[in-house]
């Protein structure tokens, strides 16, 4: 599992649509579907119930969604902290 997979997963969950998430992220739909399938295989759990009307959330997805939010927030916080340090250590 990597952060990009979690980001894709979060967009699918937020938009309740693989195609809308793909469009928003600039990916092809098949790539987003494949990344979600990889997550499902890795976790051994079905995350999405797919239908013609989009996707529905499973209990497992709801659990993963909270962790994904936390992980992505921590990644952004770490990036911001590093950028701040780099800004303070600039030689002029």
Detailed description of the structure:
With 92 residues, the chain is mainly alpha-helical. Helix content is 72%, strand content 9%. It has helices at residues 3-15, 18-25, 29-43, 59-88, and strands at 48-51, 54-57. It has a two-stranded antiparallel sheet. Helix 1 crosses helix 2 and helix 1 crosses helix 3. The longest helix is centred in the C-terminal third of the chain and has 30 residues, at 59-88. The radius of gyration is 16 Å and the shape is elongated. The model has no long low-confidence stretch (mean pLDDT 90).
Write the layout of secondary structure elements.
Layout: H1 3-15, H2 18-25, H3 29-43, E1 48-51, E2 54-57, H4 59-88
Helix content: over 70%
Q: Note the main sheet.
A: 2 strands, antiparallel
For the residues shown, what is the average pLDDT?
Answer: 90
Rg over C-alpha atoms, rounded to the nearest angstrom: 16 Å
Strands across the major sheet, in which order?
1-2
The low-confidence parts are none
Which descriptor suits the 3D outline? elongated
β-strand amount:
5-15%
Q: Count of DSSP E strands?
A: 2
Number of helices: 4
């Amino acid at each position: 599992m990597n952060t990009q997979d979690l980001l894709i997963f979060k967009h699918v969950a937020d938009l309740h649509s693989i195609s809308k998430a793909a469009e928003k992220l600039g990916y092809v739909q098949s790539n987003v579907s494949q990344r979600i399938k990889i997550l499902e295989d890795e976790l051994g759990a079905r995350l999405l119930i797919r239908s013609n009307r989009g996707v529905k959330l499973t209990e497992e997805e709801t659990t993963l969604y909270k962790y994904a939010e936390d992980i992505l927030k921590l990644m952004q916080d770490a990036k911001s902290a590093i950028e701040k340090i780099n800004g303070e250590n600039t030689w002029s």
